[in-house]
Amino acid sequence: MTTPVKLAIVYYSSTGTITEIAKELHDAGVKAGAEVRLVKAGELAPQDAIDSNPAWAANHAATANVPEATPADIEWADAVIFGTPTRFGNVSSQLKQFIDTLGGLWAEGRLTDKVYSGFVSSATAHAGQESTLLALYNSVHHFGGIVVTPGFTDPAKFVDGNPYGTSHVDGQGTNPVNDTTRTAARIQAERVVAMAAKLKASAEAASRAEEDAHVEEERPRRWWQLRRK
Known about the structure:
This protein is an alpha/beta fold. The chain is built from ten helices and seven strands. It has helices at 17-31, 47-51, 54-62, 71-76, 93-100, 103-107, 129-143, 157-160, 179-218, 223-228, and strands at 6-11, 35-40, 79-87, 90-91, 115-122, 146-147, 166-169. The two termini are 38 Å apart.
């Protein structure tokens, strides 16, 4: 029997939109049968910058108890979903800084053959959501990871319209995470868990077959088998 998929959701959120999507992905991953870790990238901004924005300060305080991500979380996982607000069409510096700490695991080949996916938010439409996800996936290619996107694999994906990953336009805080985004997150989590489960089952079956072959090779031969040699 295949063991449950281990899913790590690693995100950075300033004003809380990405936090809400991360929670939705977490709940959908659990419902899909995965063991899920929800962890955040460490904050790099100074406290005075955080305090200057009420929404940023509120989210910073509300997520104080969320564990900070470590490379061990990625090593543990069979699948990883990264989340970030878009920054000039690119990944936030906080999430990128965390990704840059994975060099040791990368050098040892411990980032390979895992499933990776991503989600994103921006203040306005057409503000670099897709380019941010594509930039994020560049790192996955270097890992030797397997990118699993939601694509247009469900009719509901034609409503949100982003095949690269879950995305949301928050309108500078005026557009809270809605049912369209929550549905997109559910679809993405289910697809990531399903694909990771297939890969894990295949790997575990291959490992069992290798162990069985080794046992058979080591098993003492009967006298008639020895005579045939």
